[in-house]
Structure formats: structure tokens, C-alpha cells
Amino acid sequence: MPHTTVPANVLLVDDQPANLLALEAALDTLGVNLVRAESGLEALAALERQDFAAVLLDVRMPGMDGFEVARQIRARPRSRFTPILFVTAGDDPDDAMLSAYALGAVDFLAKPLRTEVLKAKVGVFVELYRSKEELRARERRDFEQRLEVKEERYRALFESIDEGFCVVKLLRGPDGKVHDFLYEEANEAFCMHTGLQNPVGHTMCELLPGYEGQRFEVYDRVARTGEATRFVQEDRIMNRWFDIYATRLRGGGADLVAVLFSDITQRLLAEQDLRRLADQLAEANKRKTEFLATLAHELRNPLAPLSNGLHLMRMGAGKPEMLEKTRQMMERQIQHMVHLVDDLLDVARISTGKVELRRQSMDLRDVVSTAVETSGSLIENAGHKLSVDLPAEPLPMDADPTRIAQVVSNLLNNAAKYTPECGAIALKAWREGGEAVVSVTDTGIGIEPAALGKVFEMFAQVPSNEGRPQGGGLGIGLSLVQSLVALHGGSVGASSAGRGKGSTFTVRLPLAKPQATGGGEAPASRGGKLGQLRVLVVDDNADAAESLGVLMEMEGHAAHIAHTGQEALAVAPEFRPDVVFLDIGLPDVSGYDVARRLRAMPAGERAMLVALTGWGTQEDRDRTRDAGFDRHLTKPAELTAVEELLRAASQQKA
């Protein structure tokens, strides 16, 4: 800025007003502020109030002369370097001049004063003062600009970090203990991590009434010792976990603590979830291992009696009674294996959401009776007494009768397996509001209270001091029950008074809404003679093909056996089959391709194509249907299903 814009003061000290007036007149054109002082004390007081570019000081003054005033001016920090020009009218100016210079005077003027000389000398010091002030102002502006840039960088950094940051001042009580802290600074991330809004100027207890002061002691220690610390702590009132770093600002006694922190609640929850999942996976892996061992055991068990049965049949070819007994034994073992495989397939279907319920109007009492027949042999073999209590009134439902029978049968089988020989099993069904309730109660080994919530989990086994349950099991029966009941919109629960006190399983299923009911169609009779059919059996498994062919011939049908797809395609035009039992996994051509090519032939255009496969998911059924098959049978095919197909083919042929 121009020098003239910088204000400057000049102090005039003289005990004679006329002399002061003369000095003012001489310096008037300098453009400075002239301050009068008529005594040394008055001059010193003026120097305390403001700064001066120069001091014109009369030597001879009453009370305190100019030399004494000069000494005190030099003794004071504010005026130590202020230029002093002595003015005197003495007879011996040399001695006075020496004394003046000894006191740090910059000039010594003798009266009478020459105006131009006085003005020039004072003007020099005024210009020096203004230059100095201008330099100071420039340095101040530069410093402020640098400070502003640093402040902007600090603020940008302050607001850009993801972690919450704040500066708190500790508030102490009369006993010196910290009872609260005041937020003096906080960045935007602070609000994101804490959920607290506008914290600056407020105390923690104001923002969170009821705050328990979990961090007061830690911040107090940081402020007193100056040792930074990092810790993880829960703020229960905020229901959050924080990772906190705290350090002291300034020196001891300032009670200022800088805090850098982040909300780690989600991270801790995720870690807890991972640990829980790891535990669940470990438990699932353990159950899987146990399940595979159990499965191997259960599938291996029927092989010994089946092998023995074949040996007995060879030895006792001439003993019809032994052959019949052996055949019955082998049928039971095969049915046991089929039941195990069916359960495994059901688990796979339910797990992938591919179970398709075939709902129809039904009476729950009839389905319960069917389930009792299915489980009767297992119950009888164990010597249990079964009591069945069904209501006289119908229990109409819109449900899949096969699946509901499977539910009840599984519960009865479970009761039979976990009840020691000659126990008692009670099955009861009744109406309760809009629901049908079925309960199965046994006098078996019971269930510990801690295990009640786990009995419906996949592969769960009820622990017993008596070893494995009668008849074994894969630990999937109750899980299937729960899943099938849920698919019907119902629920199932278990209760037990404890070990050795039996168990009760209760199923609740929605009843059908009241409506006019008519007599349902009677099941198709299995009696009556079937018309003869031409049946083509295509399977690369010679034993399976031969046994099914023999069965066809025993039923009075004409059967032809082929072991490859090409052989089947070659014989079909001449044989003109009414029914084709076709294996999917043939060695040369897949069963799907054989079916498509048969459909393209006149001889196979109207034939009933039946897929024989070990795969039974809905996706597999859709694929066989798309290839042209009419029916889908899962190996081993049940005799009743085969007979139903033959009956339908006979009716179609007629």
C-alpha cells in the first residue's frame, strides 16, 4: 500500500505550550498525527497507549527532565526502539548532546529550530516507520494467506477422512474427576459414525442424556499422561461398537483430547455371522459325515439278506414254502432300500424347491388308514401295541394324499424305531377349528428338552443310551415331515417329558373349506383280466430287462427284450409295440433319442412310451415328457405302478 495510507504518530514533549505550537506548525505538512505531552509523565502515558514514529523531547522540563524520560522510554519493551530527537536551548549543547546520544537519541536539535531541517529529519523517521509498518502489514497478509491455505488444506483433510474425528475438552468437577466433555470440533464423518447431529458446542451428556461415561476415565488418563491410546469399546446407549484412537492436544492442563474413531458395529456383526456360519458349517459337515456313514450302513444291511436269499432260492428250488418265505424276506429288504432311496430323492427335491404337490379332495381318515397299513409290519415286528382313534366325522382336505400318508407313516415309523420292544404307540386324529390335528404318541426313549428344537433338522439323530434306534434311520424322516407339512400350509411340533418318558409329535393341517361334497370316484379296481399287449423292454441291464420281460409274460402279455437303442429301433417296425419300457442310460443311443425316433415311426407313433431311470426330479420328468415319453418311472419301478400303466394301455388299445 502507499506510504501515505499508513497512519503515523509523532509525540511532541515540551512543558511550554508555545513551543508545542511551533513544533506543530513546522510538522503540519508531513501528514502525521501530532500528539502533545507537556510533561514527562504525560509523555510516558502516551507511549503506553500507542506507537510513535518519533519522539521530539525537550531536555529541560520541571520535575522529570528529558534525559530521565528517555531512560524510561528505553526501559520499556514497547518503546525501546522508538526514535528520540532531543530539543534544547541550553548554553552548552555539547555536554547535553553527549548525554542524549548516550541514552540512545537519534538526533540532537538546538533551538532556535529551523523548520526545514526539523521537517526533513522528522520526515525521515516517519518514512522509516511507515515502511516498517507496511512491511509488517505485508508479512501479516502473507502469513494470513499461508495460514488460510493451511486451514483450507486442514479443513479439506478434516472433512475428507472416512473416520470420525473430533476434539473434546474435558470437563472436571471440584474433585478433579471428568464428568463430561465438550465437543469443540467435529467432522462430517462424526455424524455418520455416531448418528449425533451438530455436536460442536454441546457436551456428550447433552447429546446423549443418560450417557454412562464409558470413555471419561480413558480420556482423563490421556490428558494427564500425554500417552496416546487405542481401544475398542461399546457405547451401550448408542448400541454401537467403536474403534477409538485418542491423543492429547497441546500441553498438560489444556484438557484437550483429539479422537479418531470408526463405527465397527457391522464389522463385528459380520465377524459374529462368519463365526456362526463356520460353526454351522462344521456342524453340517459333522452331520454329513455321520449321515454318509449311516447311509452306507443302511444300504449295506439289506444286501446280506438279499444275497442269502438268492443262495436259499438256489438250494431250495423244490421247497415251495421256503421259497415263499425267502421271497417275502427279499421283498421286505428291497422295499426298505426303495424307502431309503425315496427319502433321499425327496430331500433333494425339497432342497431345490422341485416338489410338486398333486392336490385333490380327500378325507384325512382314509389317508391315515393307508399310512397305518404301510407302517404296520414295522410296528408288528417290534411287538408294539398300536391304538388308532379317528373321528366319526370326515376330515376333508385339499392335499396330496401320497405326501400326507408319507408324513403319518414317517411319524409311525419313527415311533416304532425309538420305542423299545413291546411298547405302545397311539395315533389320534381330530378336528380343531379349521384344522385337522394328528398326533402320534409313543412310550419310547423320549427326547431331552435341549434336543427338542433340533429333532426336525436334517440328519438329526436322537441320542440314546441304548445305542442306535431299532431299524436304523438316516435322520431325515422328521425333516421330510416338517417340509411336507409346511408345503401344505401346516405345522408340526414335538414334545417330551424327558429321557425314557416317550414323545408326542403333533401335526396341524388346514381343512378344506365347507362345500357341497359328492361321492368321489372309486379307485380303479385292480381286478379284471387285462387285454394282451405287445410290450417292448429296452434296458442294457440284462437282469433288469429279463425280470421285467418275465413279469410281462406272466401277466399274459407278449414281451420282446432289447439291450441297445439300435436293437430297439430295428425291432420296433415289425413288433409294433403297444407299450415300450425304455431305459434312459443306454450304451449306444440315449433313451431320449430312441423315444424321438420311435415317435417318428408309424410303429411307435401311438405306443405308450415309459421312461425307466434312476433320476426322478421334476426337471428329469420334464425332459422325458419333452422327448415324447408318456410316463416316467423311477427305478426300481413298483409293481402297482407297472400294473396301472398296463391297465391304462389296455384301455387305450381297446
Q: What topology emerges from the helices and strands here?
A:
Layout: E1 9-13, H1 17-27, E2 33-37, H2 40-49, E3 54-58, H3 66-75, E4 84-88, H4 93-102, E5 107-110, H5 115-160, E6 164-172, E7 178-186, H6 188-194, H7 204-207, H8 216-225, E8 229-235, E9 240-249, E10 256-263, H9 265-300, H10 303-315, H11 320-351, E11 360-363, H12 364-381, E12 385-389, E13 396-399, H13 401-417, E14 424-432, E15 435-442, H14 477-487, E16 491-496, E17 503-510, E18 534-538, H15 542-554, E19 558-562, H16 565-575, E20 579-583, H17 591-599, E21 608-613, H18 618-627, E22 631-634, H19 639-653
Characterise the protein shown here:
With 654 residues, this protein is an alpha/beta fold. It has 5 domains: 3-136, Rossmann fold; 161-263, Beta-Lactamase (2-Layer Sandwich), CATH 3.30.450; 276-350, Signal transduction histidine kinase, dimerisation/phosphotransfer (DHp) domain (Helix Hairpins); 358-510, Heat Shock Protein 90; 534-653, Response regulator (Rossmann fold, 3-Layer(aba) Sandwich). The strands form 5 sheets. Strands 2-1-3-4-5 form a 5-stranded parallel β-sheet, sandwiched between helices. A 5-stranded antiparallel β-sheet has the order 7-6-10-9-8. The protein contains 19 helices and 22 strands.
